User: What shape does this take?
Amino acid sequence: MSASLRALGPRGSDRWWSLASPGYDYTVGLVGWHRWQDALVSDVASGIVLDVGCGPAHLAQGLLRRGIDYVGVDRSHTMLAHAAHAVRGCGPGRAHLLRADLTALPFTDACFDLVVSTGVLGLLDRRARNTALTEIARVTKGEVRLLEPIVRGDQNVDRWRWRLLAFVSDQPLELTELQDVGLAPRVVGDSRFAGTYSFVLATKK
Ligand SMILES: C[S@@+](CC[C@H](N)C(=O)[O-])C[C@H]1O[C@@H](n2cnc3c(N)ncnc32)[C@H](O)[C@@H]1O
Assistant: This one.
């Protein structure tokens, strides 16, 4: 898709995610996505975490159980309904879910200890992504973590894999996009999901 998903525009894209939401969490769980999401935040021990494009908020559950406060933002009502179901009864951390666009985050500067994005930024075109990254850099106190399609130096990915990935994203991120908004990123570990997605840890410069 994503050439096609992006071509749908914000409304069409929201409709797509609403339609996809009932089976989304189950399907991505089958390919190991939840394990990678959990690994991304497994060492987080305190603070408030913002999850942009949170979808069904799988990432929230472990954090909340460890007493970490979680804020999830998504533009899709239906994804947020699934997220509300997922966080119900999880604690002692507090969960707050709200509908917002990640290119205009309704938060003051530097109010989150950590901002995470998993499977979202690759959906945006370069311009929207620059705005989203600027917003992410603005609202974090210092730390950002991504699980996104990344162009990496050591990559040796077959074309067919990128075509597979093209269903969700044909716009892998360049690390320079993070540097451009004042973040210092580094790719961590091996790539995931047929060699297409990577973990990126970034700090504010
Ligand atoms: C592939 S899902 C990823 C969900 C979750 N982060 C995960 O890893 O399972 C993409 C999510 O991003 C949301 N999204 C896409 N564009 C957005 C935007 N501009 N603002 C807020 N949410 C957006 C969609 O509604 C959808 O829930």
